[in-house]
Specification:
Shape: elongated
Order of helices and strands: EEHHEHE
Distance between the termini: 26 Å
Structural class: alpha+beta
Radius of gyration: 21 Å
Number of strands: 4
Low-confidence stretches: none
Keywords: Membrane, Transmembrane, Transmembrane helix
Helix content: 55-70%
Mean pLDDT: 83
Number of helices: 3
Length: about 120
């Protein structure tokens, strides 16, 4: 009897997508778990970003007396942490095939059974 699998596609910036096979029926659960982790991480990164922005602007305005320099630093922090949030988006896979034969998954996607959690 052949084993059925779900195939997940993980996008990569500047490279080929990565395909992973998981047991049939597990694909949606893996995507949901990854999406939950992504939401928590984005929420944490945004809170950290605004904390750092406020500290930089506050320090520049109060201690250094250079509001323009503080705003420049805050803008830099905003951009750099925004790039990290975009990288977090790539951690969530898409289910590209559900309940297919493992040999077919290997043939079409090169997806081996190695889990994605």
């Amino acid at each position: 009897m052949t084993e059925l699998v779900d195939v997940l596609r993980f996008p990569r910036a500047g490279g080929p997508d990565r395909y992973v096979a998981v047991s049939a029926g597990e694909g949606a659960r893996v995507v949901e778990a990854r999406e939950d982790r992504r939401r928590k991480r984005v929420r944490l990164l945004r809170a950290l970003k605004w904390l750092v922005v406020l500290v930089v602007v506050g320090h520049a305005a109060v201690v250094a007396g250079e509001v323009a320099l503080g705003l420049l630093g805050a803008g830099l922090v905003h951009v750099l942490l925004g790039v990290d949030v975009l990288q977090v988006e790539r951690e969530v896979p898409d289910v590209v095939a559900a309940g297919i034969d493992s040999a077919t998954a290997q043939e079409r996607y090169g997806a081996g059974e190695n889990g994605a959690e």
